[in-house]
What does this fold into?
Amino acid sequence: MRLSRALTPVVAVAVGLFPPETVQPRTAHGQVQQQAPPTFRATTTLVEVDLVVHDAQGNFVPGLRAEDVQLFEDGRPQRIDQFYLVSHDRGGQAPGAAQTAVSEDRARRIFVLLFDEGHLAHESLMRAKVGAERFIREQMGPGDFGGVFAGGGMYHGRLTSSRAELVAGLQTVRVGFENRQALLAPFREFPRIPGEIDAMRIAEGSLEVATRLGQKACQDDPFSCQLNGGENQVENLIQQKARLYVRQARILTNNTMQNLRYVVERLSRIPGRKTVVLMSEGFFVEDSRADLQTIAAVAARGGSTIYSIDGRGLIGAPGTTTDVLTPDPGRSTAFDTGEDGPNILTSGTGGLRVYNIDDISRALNIVARDTSTYYVIGYQPDNPTMDGSFRKIEVKPTTAGLRIRSRKGYTAVALPAMEQVR
It folds into this structure.
């Protein structure tokens, strides 16, 4: 079933916001929906902020009230008009105790699994598909919606509550013709390039870096140096490798950003919280940081929280499936700085980057738990003009010992007309 104008709560089956033939973003005209309390969707200037609040031991803190937090926009305190808790059980249904506070918009969970094929090696992609299928079969309940985004589009062009359709969507996910690990492989071969930053500097014309790396390569391996024509030819080879990598990496990163932008813009037409799970090994961001921050700000305004799961699983450390959400000293980060991109997206929207977990279904369970219990702040900014600027958000506890995670800001734009699922 597709989208239609909704006047009363109904059972959701499918959300058709993603035309199945569409790869490039297109303009879609949504339909205005009548509002149901306690949300404030009727005004285009309302800003909602989701909060995850933990104590010093990392446990979620229930029972908070609006006076337990302070809200700031661009450094100025804001009046909190709305504050309530959303909590879902395993099946995606809001418990009875929360029903008095949770509107139709918050009474469901929405997950979009975005497979970043250009930044997933074959083993990583297979690991992600297996984990995603297990998560869909075992953890998604009748109140949940999901979508599989791969190959530049959403499977069947819609979100759905059908597990069978979601599993079928996973079968369409394919390894990219070119992927980031394949592009990085020549860095490990003679003459070696230490990492992306050096490659970027060389591609931008730094002869000093190319000369330094050429000299070191010839000192470390004189035989290969002579075999490749001497030090001058080795420096030329280093420049060629760097320029080729940067050119190809930019194309892959642009594809990733285009897909992310398309997904968050479409999801902004659905009220409530949406969870975008980026399956990726990370990507080249040296000249795309500002664009990624903009995507995160647009996602935040539209109510989408971005989580990232590293498809590589446990790397460079003992054990098999240890859950690690902090950097591990044994983790291999040689040759690339790809973690920066997912970090920008997740921190900007209040999500998490999950890595060093071999079982991707467990990683998805972490995401599901994190997005299933949270507080919602609703406020009307002191500056009501939606001028397209970036507005910084900061939420501070008034009680000692609390740790709050929320989106860092948003783009001040009017929300599109809301689409309601039927």
In short: The longest strand covers residues 47-54. The chain has two domains: 14-176+257-411, 180-250. Residues 14-176+257-411 form a domain with the Rossmann fold fold (CATH 3.40.50.410). The first helix runs from residue 122 to 139.
